[in-house]
Amino acid sequence: MASESKMIMLRSSNNEVFEVEEALAFESQTIKHMIEHDCADTVIPLPKVSSNILAKVIEYCKKHVTSPKDDNNELESFDAEFVNIDKNVLFGLMSAANYLNIKSFLDLTSQALADIIEEKC
Amino acid sequence: MMGESCGWSFLLALPDDIFAIVAQSLSPRDVCNLCLCCRSLSALATNDKVWFTQCEMLRVVPVRDLVEWRKGVLSYRVLCKFLESVKSLIGIWVHQNPELGNVVYVMPGFISIVGCRIIPQELGPLGIKEGPILWAPVFEILGDIDGSSLFFLHGRDKDDDYLYPGSVKAVDKACNMLLLEVVPKEQISGEKFADDKELLARIDPLRSLNLKSQRVFGQNKQKVQFNRLAFGDRRKLLETVTSQVRLKVPDLASGLLFPRMSSDYKNFQQDFMHLRERRYLLMQMHKLRNNCSKYNGNSQPPADPTQLEISEMKKALEISTGLRTSLGEDDCLTQSTKRKNIAGYFKDGLKQILGKSTLTIYGRERLRSSTSRSDSKHAQLQEFLYSGDTIGLALNASNGKLSSYRAWPNMHDSRFALYKLPMQEPKPSQEYGGLWGGTFGWPPGMPSEDKPGKALYFLFLSYEESQDQRLLIATKILEGTHYVLHPNGSAMFIVNLDEPSSETFPWDSDGDSEPLNITCAYTGEGIANGYGFRYPGSKPGSLFVIQGGLLAFIWKESRTVLTMQRLNLQELLKKGERVPALPPTANFAYLTKSYSNVFAGFSSTSNGLALQR
């Protein structure tokens, strides 16, 4: 029997549950540590992350986990489009990236914010 | 700018760690702009974490040093300000004289940058990488507690080491010339005189009134730049000012300029302690000298003020030349006896200088009816001195139109200047650029036991595109022989990177009998005797690239071989041996033509060096 990849349940601040593959969830160092050290039950609560933000984070991780490693151009254009959003949403993503400890995502969102600031200055 | 407060309030809610990451992608200027937006943003953006990242991004010093340096300044922000202002000074600076080579390497010290001259020398018994390299201090720029720059020129006068304090003019980021100048300064507003109103009233009742009108008057005039003055005037000004501002170096201050290379942690910490003490002492000395106008008649006046009172110089000028000033300024009558002594001292010194110039250039009899040219020169000098209240030393890093021939800048022979060699960062298609150390003979590096020490050569390799050919030029910038063979800045060899060589390398193994692996070879030409000293010729030769970071150029006919390896000057200097400097002006820029080693006042043979170790 081919074992299916384990699924992790994530609960957002407004009690919405998202089911994701383990590999995807492990993009977040926070979640990874919680699971590896048996600190979590079946569902991992993420009180600091709202549903819409969590959905976007999952979308980012999914793209980066499933994309082939050498397709940099596609990833770059995806990233550029991804952060072309409202400032408040960007802020939400940054906080989530920091809380969930997803380094590449934090760098991406920080760079995006820096670009906006530079534009304004 | 960021006028809308509603959309940006989240920025203030960002934890400072994250803001530091955001700030990584911002230039220091943008972070400063953020500080100007509003008080809360200012608090966020002046956070030490943010500025620590900015300092890191400048890549002037490694992180470990940044942490040590931070302890001596108010914040990472002022440290960043200092680092940014001195960053473009770091690198290799050269001068034409003496022909053996004049290489000043400017590198980070301890909350400072230090200019060290590598003197022409021979290799010691330990070879290039280990044998202590001989160097002499040229100048230092210390970062004050608030990040401002304090300039010290190093010099020696009759067996004593001195420091000559001065200021630093705003550094041009694209500077290619470093000039030593004398600059007149205006006393900053009434604040400085607030404490000394009594003193001022005693000395010159009309001066405080004159000051304002003088400044207004001064602003309307075109200021005479130091570099516009005649060479003789410039040299005399420098000599006068340096002789007056010099500070005797107490033992503590003559010590370390930068931490030494040491694997021992204890030594390392001790070095830092000495560096901190020395820096504190120098900061005090610099500050004290700058406030020479503040002393009252009772206390001992500083013997060597940083800034000379220009009024004293003007008075001396009037007396010795008999010319009346056009400004109608009152003479600065010295009431205090102590001041009289200093005034007298200046007067004598200047009388000597100006007396000489009046004799040689003008002639006492011809004073009234001097030629218009000498009149204008004299008028220029007077105008220069009149444009301020005090006068002092200054370092001017500027960008000038410089032409160069084969990577060697064409230099003015009457400017007290050092010229920058453009940085050659090794890139994928240009991996040989930069500084290499070389010696003649095979095996490379080590001097043989029976022969005298091998002369150490410094070669600066650079790339040039000429007529669709990619050329690699090796410019000689330092020669360790006793009497120079070819002019400073000559191309020791030029090879064509598009033309491989079919020559075979004469040896199979190196000095340690390790087999050699020749990666590639290029054809070119090496320097040879030509029409006299000034115009060397060239003879064919080939450049061999040997695995392990070695380069070897062999002249085809004579089979002479020049081997080169990369040098990390900063490391070498940290392990090096300090030798005495020259008199201050000559220590900065040696303008006299010379073909021998003017920097070595001692025996520089390898035997001598071996004995010293």
Spans where pLDDT lies below 50 across 5 or more residues of chain B: 1-6, 189-197, 211-221, 291-306, 316-347, 353-370, 602-613
Q: Biggest sheet of chain B, open or closed, and with what strands and sense?
A: 9 strands, mixed, barrel
The computed structural class of chain A is: mainly alpha
> What would the principal axes of the Cα set say about the shape of chain A?
globular
Q: What's the count of strands of chain A?
A: 3
Largest sheet of chain A: 3 strands, mixed
- Contiguous runs where pLDDT drops below 50 for at least 5 residues of chain A: none
Helix content of chain A: 55-70%
Helicity level of chain B: 25-40%
Short characterization:
Chain A is mainly alpha-helical. Chain A has helices spanning 22-25, 29-36, 51-66, 72-82, 87-100, 103-120, and strands spanning 7-11, 17-21, 43-45.
SSE diagram, text form:
The complex is a heterodimer of chains A (121) and B (613).
Chain A: E1 7-11, E2 17-21, H1 22-25, H2 29-36, E3 43-45, H3 51-66, H4 72-82, H5 87-100, H6 103-120
Parallel strand pairs in A: 1-3
Antiparallel strand pairs in A: 1-2
Helix pairs in contact in A: 3-5, 5-6
Chain B: H1 9-13, H2 16-24, H3 28-37, H4 39-45, H5 48-58, H6 63-70, H7 76-86, E1 91-95, E2 102-108, E3 112-118, H8 127-130, E4 134-143, E5 149-157, E6 160-168, E7 177-185, H9 191-194, H10 197-203, H11 207-220, H12 231-245, E8 247-248, H13 265-290, E9 308-309, H14 310-321, H15 337-362, H16 372-386, E10 390-398, E11 404-405, E12 408-409, E13 417-420, E14 434-440, E15 457-466, E16 469-479, E17 491-500, E18 518-530, E19 532-546, E20 550-555, E21 561-566, H17 569-574, E22 577-578, H18 584-588, H19 606-612
Parallel strand pairs in B: 4-22, 6-10
Antiparallel strand pairs in B: 1-2, 1-13, 2-3, 3-4, 4-5, 5-6, 6-8, 7-10, 7-13, 9-10, 11-12, 14-15, 14-21, 15-16, 16-17, 17-18, 18-19, 19-20, 20-21
Helix pairs in contact in B: 2-5, 3-4, 5-7, 14-15
